Amino acid sequence: MIQHFPVLAVMILFLGAFLIEILGKNAAVRNAIAFAAVSISLCLLAALVKPVLLEGKVISYWMGGWKPVANYAIGIGYEVDALGLTFALLGITAYWLSCVYSFGYMKGKQHLGHYYTLFLMLAGASIGFFLTGDIFNMFIMMEIVTFSAVALTASNTEKTTAIEGAFKYLINCSIGSAMTLTGIALIYMNCHTLNLAQLATILPGNVNLTTLMAFALILIGFCVESAMIPFHASFVDAHTVAPSSVSMILSGMVLKLGVYGMIRICYVVFRAIDTAQLEILLTAFGTLTMFIGVTMALAQHDFKRLLAFHSVSQLGYIIAAAGLCTSLGLTGSLYHAINHTLFKGLLFLCAGAVIHSTGTSDLDSLGGLSKRMPKTCLCFLVGAFSISGLPPFNGFVSKWMIYQAAYAKAVTTGNFYYAIVTVTALVVSVMTLASFVKVLHSVFFGQLKAEHENVHEAPGIMLFPMYLMSALCILTGIFYRAFSTVFIGPAVFAAFNNTGYIDSMMGEGYAELFGVPALGLDKLEFSYWNPFVWLILFVIVFAAACVVIFSSKDTRGRTMESGKSYDSVYGTGDLSVDFMGKTYETGDPEEKYAVFFSGEKAEYSHAGGSDLFWGFKYNWHKYYEFLQGLHSGSVNDYSAYAVVCIAVICVFMYMFMR
């Protein structure tokens, strides 16, 4: 009976979406169906913890009973190992919390029947993606996720830029989908099967130009799905304008589809992760993503846009760690993937509570809300400390694993490149903390604005998921060994256990019959306390703090005021910019300047007196000018960046991985 649970967990969510579209006019019925669907799916997946995670079994299920014939897979199969189940449990937990939060946050909004229909379709497709054992079925689920997410993003009628953000998101995802589908077609042309387990017996060690390009294209598709640099800009726009209950899912869960897809194809299907060239490619993309993401976040003045750029940055940690191809690296990657869903989901829910109570996400228009929203403030502090990697919160444990894994890789390989990865990861954590100090100062501390004197705390139904996620951020940081034993350890073993994955789906001894070698699992060595490593950490953090402090030295400026003319750091030309009803003329580098990141007036980032790190950004203005030019707000530009990156990755694969 238990072998039916995975497919039932997916079907119940799609069934709920169908029923809401028919019966969803009544709010009570609609909410009951949505809550019942996510709750039943959660229970079905939770029932798999004992056999899959604790006992190490792999559950296979063939749709319609179409099992392999003559050692060849002809049907669609679900294969649930510890890796897929860990992501599925993470996903359904996030959807359950978001569903409860939506009952309060979305109350009184329009078209709620369609909202919950799309919400359950998004949930069903996400869980199906993690559990399927068919690569084309993964693509189908990814497409359902894309169109559901696009529609949910556009549903935020309170944001005038919601449709634009959804359109950009659609275009970007379409590029990734096209690459993925093309790669799958090339694989089918060569292998005549779409089953992941059978592909894992054919593709490794059987590389030709076609399969290599297929691997490159599918990898690119998953990079797009996980918002890696340079595919990130459209995702940030979508995260910013979507309802906060959806932003939580887009950041915390939808981006994980790309992470899971990369791990599955690199570690199991193509078994290419142990090649030095791929390790360098993934860690380079991850490191670049984490650094650009956090520097962009530092310059934002919109609450949700700042959080969206931090999502990009944290995904960089996850991909870079997975690219190390060590048990500790993958452990840190998976742990951080789970932690990111928890603390980033919590932060987006807190942002939603602030927007729900004040009606604005502009950091310059907020302040002193800890006096009116102390519970939200406390939850936000937990999330901020977690994402910044402070002990004893969960973010510290996973980041500490990533630091150690990158440092160990540098020592064992003698490659100084991995030392750069380690230092960058540490510096990005310092900058992350600095960014959230700014948010805390702008939103919860400081002087309470007159227009927010009558602001009240968020309703209890919105606070409840925030409390749960806060508790999980603390508990998974304190009891990290137990959490790793139950969830992370089995998932890491499953990623390296390619032969077990093959035999469970295709039959015992199938991998040995076709001469498939096992992917070796190195010894996991993780030390929470290591005096020498802590000393290195202290030196790097101190150096990073000095950079920030001395970058701000002797840089004094004043906030631009309406009706006055200013010169620009960009040159002496005349430039007029309208921002929030005020006009700014720019020119003189001694005045505080504005950084215009996305090319849209709604995202004009004014570095005024409320900006704690204006001096730092001032001295980095050449770097920010460069980023300004790249973040034009034009979907045509973003598509061009994607095309260039696709070409670079394909050429890299052709030159170094043949």
What can you see in these coordinates?
This protein is mainly alpha-helical and 658 residues long. The protein has helices at 5-23, 27-46, 49-54, 82-105, 112-131, 135-154, 162-191, 196-202, 209-225, 233-241, 244-269, 276-298, 303-322, 327-358, 374-387, 394-413, 416-444, 460-478, 480-496, 498-506, 510-513, 531-551, 614-619, 621-630, 635-656, and strands at 59-62, 77-80, 576-579, 582-585, 594-596, 604-606. Strands 1-2 form a two-stranded antiparallel sheet. A two-stranded antiparallel ribbon has the order 3-4. Strands 5-6 form a two-stranded antiparallel sheet. Strand 3 (576-579) and strand 4 form a beta hairpin. Helix 9 (209-225) runs antiparallel to helix 25 (635-656). The longest helix is centred in the middle third of the chain and has 32 residues, at 327-358. The two termini are 45 Å apart.
Blueprint of the fold:
Layout: H1 5-23, H2 27-46, H3 49-54, E1 59-62, E2 77-80, H4 82-105, H5 112-131, H6 135-154, H7 162-191, H8 196-202, H9 209-225, H10 233-241, H11 244-269, H12 276-298, H13 303-322, H14 327-358, H15 374-387, H16 394-413, H17 416-444, H18 460-478, H19 480-496, H20 498-506, H21 510-513, H22 531-551, E3 576-579, E4 582-585, E5 594-596, E6 604-606, H23 614-619, H24 621-630, H25 635-656
Antiparallel strand pairs: 1-2, 3-4, 5-6
Helix pairs in contact: 1-2, 1-5, 2-4, 2-5, 4-5, 4-11, 4-14, 4-18, 4-19, 5-6, 5-11, 6-7, 6-11, 7-9, 7-10, 7-25, 8-20, 9-11, 9-25, 10-11, 10-13, 11-13, 11-14, 12-13, 12-17, 13-14, 13-17, 14-15, 14-16, 14-18, 14-19, 15-17, 15-18, 16-17, 16-18, 17-22
